[in-house]
Request: fold
Amino acid sequence: MSNPTISYSKGAIWLHWLIAALMITMLFFGEDMIRHATGSFYPSLHVSLGVSILVLSLVRIWWRLTHPAPALPATMKNWEKIVSETTHILFYVLMIGLPLSGLMSFSTESAKDVAVAGASVFGALPVPALPNIGGIGGIIHGFGAKIGQILVILHVLAALKHQFWDRDNLLKRMSPL
Reply:
């Protein structure tokens, strides 16, 4: 069993890696799912993955509020702890905000593209129709995705720095093994 002072709980670890895989897929390939679709499969996949991220992120937030995080390594500088906390808050904002802004932009995008208009959630549910608010939802969604790409790259680089430069075993906190 995990020692909560050394690593996150198994539930938090699995939620982290599942959401990370979905977020990385969407951040780096999500636009292609919408822009280069000839049928409704890829837009539906995009919507379904977005809904999955939203639901899993709400579960993760609940889990995080009910399960304490392990302490950061004592060797971390104060500014590193502040950057880490800020980055994690921004990730949570994006994990909720990107799916919601995507939903806000759906009416505008579906009016432009019949393939997007045919999208469904998991092939079973229609995408909820929201009032068309113009392009603002898409602008927020696109800007958030770019911020997310930068954060993912910085997050990975910081984790590698801690593991191989600082050698403080920070990655052990989130290891599923």
